[in-house]
């Protein structure tokens, strides 16, 4: 096998919570968790320092809670707790596949996970741990996409990989519009102007203001996470030059 040279030294991987559901309508599918854990474990041999933010949409979404009559802040707190469940599950899956992993949570739940402290995250990454950042930003009215950009900036990751259910950014939501066209490269301004809703606007704006590149790709395709870290084109690159 040809020598694999990673393109990046430190990356932030954003995983959609919904992707953990598999074919079910709710929760964590054990076979999907195993698949994702193996995909991420493949990065270990590259010695790429890896931070991970995972969503919570497979368990609870704040806005869905609001639609059911919950107060927005309370509902968002429930959503953030949902991401802690996913983070623990993912860390367990990764450990099982030989990846030393730490979970750092924006919510203090000290008897379960360590609280997020930026310096601690940096030390763990330098020591070779994969670090899963749980509980989003710790604040309501935000999303885990914004948390991913925020943590990437804090740990000085070179890129954010948004691993999701679609294989890139399209001219419209490809799930709803089969005639939508895929882009290979977009500037942040194009994403904002064309209102391409693959990430929320707060996340895109924060990435733009700090010139942090993003790549959106399908994580259900085996090998994609590894290819992305090796610098191969697997989806749509936003920012960072073509
Ligand atoms: N222009 C677009 N290009 C690609 N995907 C889009 C676009 N607009 C909306 N989407 C949707 O964004 C989703 C990816 O976001 P993600 O955060 O992983 O999921 P969710 O928001 O459901 O938790 C895709 O599944 C896709 O349906
Ligand atoms: O910093 C954050 C991150 C997440 N959430 C809440 O946690 C839920 C799950 O996060 P995710 O980003 O997966 O939500 P989605 O975008 O899929 O609704 C969201 O709906 C929000 O209610 C929040 O309030 N603040």
Question: Secondary-structure map with pairings?
Answer:
Elements: E1 10-15, H1 30-41, E2 49-54, H2 62-67, H3 72-96, E3 101-105, E4 114-115, H4 118-127, E5 130-134, H5 144-155, E6 159-164, E7 185-186, H6 188-193, H7 201-209, E8 214-218, H8 224-229, E9 235-238
Parallel strand pairs: 1-2, 1-6, 2-5, 3-4, 3-5, 6-8, 7-9
Antiparallel strand pairs: 8-9
The structure holds adenosine-5'-diphosphate (ADP) and uridine-5'-diphosphate (UDP).
Residues 17, 55-57, 61-63, 75-76, 79-80, 82-83, 136-137, 139-140, 142-144, 147 line the site of uridine-5'-diphosphate.
How many β-strand stretches?
Answer: 9
Envelope shape: globular
Give the radius of gyration: 17 Å
Question: Structural class, please?
Answer: alpha/beta
Identify the CATH class.
Alpha Beta
Subunit structure: Homohexamer.
Pfam families: AA_kinase
Pathway: Pyrimidine metabolism; CTP biosynthesis via de novo pathway; UDP from UMP (UMPK route): step 1/1
Family: Belongs to the UMP kinase family.
Could you please describe the fold and organization of this structure?
- UMP binds at residues 56, 76, 137-144.
- The protein is an alpha/beta fold.
- It has one domain (10-238): 3-Layer(aba) Sandwich (Carbamate kinase), CATH 3.40.1160.10.
- The protein contains eight helices and nine strands.
- The protein has helices spanning 30-41, 62-67, 72-96, 118-127, 144-155, 188-193, 201-209, 224-229; strands at residues 10-15, 49-54, 101-105, 114-115, 130-134, 159-164, 185-186, 214-218, 235-238.
- It has a nine-stranded mixed β-sheet with strand order 4-3-5-2-1-6-8-9-7, sandwiched between helices.
- Helix 1 links the parallel strand 1 and strand 2.
- The longest helix has 25 residues, at 72-96.
- It starts with 9 loop residues before the first strand and ends with a strand.
- Bound molecules: adenosine-5'-diphosphate and uridine-5'-diphosphate.
- The site of adenosine-5'-diphosphate has 17 residues, from loops.
